[in-house]
């Protein structure tokens, strides 16, 4: 547990979920972190997501953290749906979820990059593959396709 995240003020995003959403749509909610309006956050602020935490959330946050779009994050177990506290770095301009989850083959990743990202050198597409959740660059390196969850830049 990282106490520095708990001491941050200025939570910029709080998302609520009902118990029905957690039971019925847990699989569809993977990638739901990307639905939240993170681009409003400033560097040093913490975003608190009061939501049902699903397995894929950690991998999506690790992908964003690996590329420097967010700082540290903490998943808080409150014995209910759970909370996620994310330290914002101010680098996120836009993030979004793609629904329905389109299948993408390795050869088609370039088309999705052109459609979703502002340029080829800027931003990342999040893909759920048989090797786990990863960005489009890692999927290309591993020569695997999957389902598109969302994007961020």
Question: Would you spell out the secondary-structure blueprint of this structure?
Answer:
Layout: H1 3-6, H2 19-24, E1 46-50, H3 55-66, E2 70-76, E3 83-88, E4 95-97, E5 103-104, H4 109-116, E6 124-129, E7 132-135, H5 136-141, E8 146-152
Antiparallel strand pairs: 1-3, 2-3, 4-8, 5-8, 6-7, 6-8
Question: In a few lines, what is going on in this structure?
Answer:
Helices cover 24% and strands 26% of the residues. With 153 residues, it is of the alpha+beta class.
Can you walk me through this structure?
The protein is built from 5 helices and 8 strands; from the N terminus they run ααβαββββαββαβ. The strands form 2 sheets. Strands 4, 5, 6, 7 and 8 form a 5-stranded antiparallel sheet that branches. A 3-stranded antiparallel sheet has the order 1-3-2, with helices on one face. 32% of the residues are buried. It is of the alpha+beta class.
Radius of gyration, in Å, reads: 15 Å
What fraction of the residues are assigned to beta strands by DSSP? 25-35%
How can the largest sheet be summarized? Answer: 5 strands, antiparallel
N→C terminal distance: 28 Å
Low-confidence stretches: 1-27
* Number of distinct helices: 5
Q: Give the integer mean of the pLDDT values.
A: 78
Tertiary shape = globular
Oligomerization: single chain
Residue share in helices?
10-25%
Order of helices and strands: HHEHEEEEHEEHE
Which class of secondary structure composition applies to the elements? Answer: alpha+beta
Number of extended strands: 8
């Amino acid at each position: 547990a990282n106490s520095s995240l708990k001491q941050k003020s200025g939570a910029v995003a709080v998302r609520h979920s009902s118990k029905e959403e957690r039971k019925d749509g847990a699989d569809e909610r993977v990638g739901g972190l990307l639905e939240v309006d993170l681009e409003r956050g400033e560097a040093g602020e913490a975003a608190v997501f009061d939501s049902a935490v699903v397995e894929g959330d950690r991998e999506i946050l690790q992908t964003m953290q690996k590329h420097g779009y967010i700082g540290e994050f903490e998943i808080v177990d409150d014995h209910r749906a759970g909370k996620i506290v994310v330290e914002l770095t101010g680098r996120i301009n836009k993030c979004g979820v793609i629904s329905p989850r389109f299948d993408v083959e390795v050869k088609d990743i370039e088309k999705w990059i052109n459609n979703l990202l502002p340029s080829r050198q800027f931003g990342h597409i999040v893909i759920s593959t048989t090797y786990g959740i990863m960005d489009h660059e890692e999927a290309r390196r591993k020569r695997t396709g999957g389902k598109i969850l969302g994007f961020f830049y």
